[in-house]
Design a protein that fits this description.
The protein is of the alpha/beta class. Helices cover 33% and strands 30% of the residues. The protein has two domains: 191 residues, FAD/NAD(P)-binding domain (3-Layer(bba) Sandwich), CATH 3.50.50.60; 181 residues, 2-Layer Sandwich (D-Amino Acid Oxidase, Chain A, domain 2), CATH 3.30.9. Strands 1, 2, 8, 9, 10, 11, 17 and 18 form an eight-stranded mixed sheet that branches. The radius of gyration is 22 Å and the shape is globular.
Length: 410
């Protein structure tokens, strides 16, 4: 049909994962369309709002390949040390702890110009601004946002009708619309939800003492409490992100507190190693659940990011799992286009399933087990997990394996 615009790939969803995939493909010359219901500029927040991403070393490589890392307008802060501990609110952490230092695994870290790190803390607004600037600078990319799209797939490709705009003909459609993906539902791909009865509270704190690029993962009866080192912002020379998991009822109660009372509860769980603290930005909260997706492809369709999986944030790997989807899918599509092969055929989709299916299931199971093991206060279980933490700290090969996993390269 003469009025159709031909593209190799159409990505629906311009969030961090969908946008990064679009940038990677278009940067390699793959004809790509990106569609999102929302306009892109309003996704930016000009002021610091307390939200940040923990970007593993492996994910940084994906962002760099997509041309995004160099465009971040605000500095990313490295995570060079991680301390894992167990305890109860208001009491000192167990003496049996686990301490990771990137110097112990520097030889296995991905090569970057700066010093090795397990990962970097990136402000959410920083990544969004980098995406918006880069997406519109790529000649091979057509962006339709805000726009509604109707997608019809057939044996040879997909027809994407943009409401009030053009009709696209794509060889492959990628669903990057999040957990409630309409494209996944339309393809008849089933999901299984695993509710945790927990709420994640996300915010930032300014603190008196420097964090020394050290992240804390403190396991409490209600769920993990993480402090993640961030780069300074205006008025806060020492800044950290907090990801605090708590039982739903208690989380609702805590979120009703004023800032002073809420800050005191944060301090009870954080301890005094950072000195006096205060809230910066606003508080965000999210219900927590895992989601098992029974298939990450369908004919002419691939799922990425939260459309393809949902895990507990206990290991901080949710967004990183999405970036790990981007890497192999982009490489497969780029290779197919360069070879004149079908970038949406069953052979490519089969290889994508093989590359991502087992890894996604392993991470989903791991985070589920970790939450169930650590989010309780049963004395024998607490003793067993404290001994396990201490054992990992003493066994060098096992410790190095955990450090590689934290980098997203193992």
């Amino acid at each position: 049909m003469s009025d159709e615009i031909g593209v190799d790939v159409c990505i629906v969803g311009a969030g961090p994962v969908g946008g990064t995939l679009a940038a990677r493909l278009a940067g390699a010359g793959v004809r790509t369309a990106l569609v999102d219901r929302a306009a892109l500029p309003p996704m930016e927040h000009p002021d610091f709002d307390g939200r940040a991403y923990a970007i593993a070393a492996g994910s940084r490589a994906v962002l760099a390949d997509a041309g995004l890392w160099a465009r971040l307008p605000f500095p990313a802060n490295p995570i060079r040390r991680i301390r894992v501990s167990d305890g109860t609110p208001g009491r000192a952490a167990s003496r049996l702890h686990l301490h990771f230092d990137v110097a112990e695994a520097a030889d296995t870290a991905p090569p970057f110009d700066d010093a090795p790190a397990f990962g970097w803390m990136v402000e959410a607004r920083s990544l969004r601004m980098a995406l918006n600037a880069h997406l519109h600078a790529l000649p091979a990319l057509s962006v339709f946002a805000p726009a509604e799209a109707a997608v019809d797939r057939d044996d040879d490709g997909a027809t994407v009708r943009i409401a009030g705009g053009p009709t696209l003909r794509a060889r492959l459609v990628v669903a990057a619309e999040g957990r409630r993906s309409p494209l996944r539902a339309a393809a008849g791909i089933r999901t299984t939800q695993l509710p945790y009865g927990q709420t994640g509270m996300v915010f930032a704190i300014a603190h008196e003492h420097p964090h020394d690029d050290t992240a804390l993962e403190h396991f409490l009866p209600g769920g993990p409490f993480a402090q993640l080192p961030m780069a300074p912002t205006e008025g806060a020379p020492h800044l950290s992100a907090i990801v605090w998991t708590e039982r739903d009822a208690l989380a609702r109660h805590l979120l009703g507190f004023d800032d002073a009372r809420f800050t005191r509860e944060v301090a009870r769980r954080l301890g005094g190693h950072l000195g006096a603290i205060r809230l910066v930005g606003r508080r965000w909260s999210y219900p927590l659940s895992a989601m098992v997706v029974h298939g990450i492809t369908a004919p002419r369709l691939a799922l990425v990011g939260d459309a393809a999986h949902g895990i507990h944030p206990i290991a901080g790997q949710g967004l990183n799992l999405g970036f790990q989807d981007v890497g192999p899918l982009a490489e497969l599509v780029i290779a197919a286009v360069e070879a004149g092969e079908d970038p949406g055929g069953e052979d490519l989709l089969r290889r994508y399933r093989a590359a991502r299916g087992p890894a996604v299931m392993a991470m989903t199971a791991t985070t589920d087990i970790l939450d169930r093991l650590f989010s309780n206060n049963i004395p024998p279980v607490r003793l067993a997990r404290d001994l396990g933490i201490a054992a990992v700290n003493r066994i060098a090969p096992l410790k190095r394996l955990f450090m590689r996993r934290a980098m997203g390269v193992g």
